[in-house]
Amino acid sequence: MNKIYLDIIEIGGTIAFGLSGAFMAMEKRLDPFGVIIITFVTAIGGGTVRDVLIGKTPVSWLQDNTTAIVILCTAIAALLFGKLLKQLSRTMFFFDSLGLGLFTVVGIERAQNAGLSPLICIALGTTTGCFGGVLRDVLLNNIPLIFRKEIYASACIAGGLLYFGLNRTNILVEYTTTITIVFIVLIRVIAVRYKISLPASYHK
Amino acid sequence: MNKIYLDIIEIGGTIAFGLSGAFMAMEKRLDPFGVIIITFVTAIGGGTVRDVLIGKTPVSWLQDNTTAIVILCTAIAALLFGKLLKQLSRTMFFFDSLGLGLFTVVGIERAQNAGLSPLICIALGTTTGCFGGVLRDVLLNNIPLIFRKEIYASACIAGGLLYFGLNRTNILVEYTTTITIVFIVLIRVIAVRYKISLPASYHK
Amino acid sequence: MNKIYLDIIEIGGTIAFGLSGAFMAMEKRLDPFGVIIITFVTAIGGGTVRDVLIGKTPVSWLQDNTTAIVILCTAIAALLFGKLLKQLSRTMFFFDSLGLGLFTVVGIERAQNAGLSPLICIALGTTTGCFGGVLRDVLLNNIPLIFRKEIYASACIAGGLLYFGLNRTNILVEYTTTITIVFIVLIRVIAVRYKISLPASYHK
């Protein structure tokens, strides 16, 4: 797939993930450096956990400055223009969904490159998509949102199954990647649009 | 020691650890995917932290599907038959204790293979036995249970000391392993049976 | 720089960091093993996260017994002589600040040795200085203190910028190291002395 096109989505996803961290940190009234750290952890958490589990170190965001600079600017923008950015919440939601799709596929492909089985690749794709938000919530002392509300991890898992389904056909890997990303984004957008969520597990 | 015998205990321990995660997640009314993730983290958390600290990556549960499938089935069983499984709580407690003993010894032996000192091996054995539960509690926004109640980490540490004590004698390593596991299980069973716990640290 | 001199500061910093963990754990009335574990995590957390991210494993405290023994003794001393040690709070604060300065510089230098860029080195130096306290607070179910109060991460970042500023001059690296440590300690001491803190981020 087009490298520049992918880079734009990845940077967009990083910004959207980072902003979700920055906003939650600001709601908890952290100081500016707290906001920066939460922005960082939310944006790079999922990929970092994946890289550490696979043993691909130094983890990817350490290896050049781009990611760090993008995240720093995101945090500073959130601190300065928070109100304004909140009005772009639809744009942000779109990028967050796109980021989720892309990060999941990136996670699957990195796990495949490490020679791991499809089941494990799906687990690591889901980790890449979701664990930034999990770490954000743990640091802010909340039960992770994705465990309670909204189709989120489920979208990653469904996307992962589709990815390996398509993999068995003759479809080019570039198409597989794109279809999977679109599929994850669609699940997420439809779920949020129609307020679909999984029922809470019942237990007595 | 007999490989199949060890595998059965390890799978039993994984199931018991996983169930303890699944039940707590269901008590917090997470959605099904939240329950699956907590089941995973509880079952593989301790070994994963150990492998990451030692640098033995990809961490062990990534390398084949067995562990992942066992845990998935455990989570699904907990979701479907939660009430029934709760009635097996004595069986579960037994496996949990057995898992604690086995995981501790596995952790000690992996640390030894990495050439680490006995003190560090005991620390990593305890980590293997206990950190799945710690991560479970952190994700569910509780202060880790093992820091507050019951003989748990203490059983691992006592077991570790016994292990290295026996190691200095002529006893075969197979016996050392078995004796240590039994010892840890016994401490835990007796402590729970007679409601023995360490006093809270006092502080003014 | 003088090796023994550095070792003394590093051990002093480990003790001070560990004590801050032990005292908070005792305030939450954990049992003695809980206190020991929190002491450990607080003292080695920052360096461990750094080593894992860089991929320098087994992480440093696994490689000899010194750190582990120092931390064990610290935890036991806190449990036995908690009241007395609390009266030394000024001494402790001094070591904590010294530890922060030293750990930050150690983190920067380890990251440089791994060939990482200055921006990333500063991020890893800050991680080394701060993440022990972050993990302590997460395990004790608090929002990390450093996100909310006091100049802490900010001192590390300012110190890191100074370090790379001095690096571009002809000043010997030994002096750069010492000046940076003193600078971080000074920022922290002045901030606490005059109750300077960053404003909470405002958000509506």
Task: Describe the protein in words.
Three copies of one chain form a homotrimer. The first copy, chain A, has 204 residues and is mostly helical. Helices cover 75% and strands 0% of the residues of chain A. Chains in contact: A-B, A-C, B-C.
Write a short abstract of this structure.
Helices cover 75% and strands 0% of the residues of chain A. Chain A has 204 residues and is mainly alpha-helical.
Outline the fold blueprint.
Three copies of one chain form a homotrimer.
Chain A: H1 3-27, H2 32-54, H3 66-87, H4 89-113, H5 118-139, H6 153-167, H7 173-193
Helix pairs in contact in A: 1-2, 1-3, 1-4, 2-3, 2-5, 4-5, 4-6, 4-7, 5-6, 6-7
**Domain module count of chain A:** 1
Number of DSSP helical runs of chain A = 7
Structural class assignment of chain A: mainly alpha
Distance between the termini of chain A: 50 Å
User: Mind telling me the C-alpha Rg of chain A?
Assistant: 17 Å
Q: Beta fraction of the residues of chain A?
A: under 5%
Q: What would the principal axes of the Cα set say about the shape of chain A? A: globular
Quaternary structure: homotrimer
Question: Biggest β-sheet of chain A, characterized?
Answer: none
Number of strands of chain A: 0
Mean pLDDT of chain A: 87
Which chain pair has the greatest contact?
Answer: A-B, 33 and 34 residues
Helix content of chain A: over 70%
Ranges of chain A with pLDDT <50 over ≥5 residues?
Answer: none
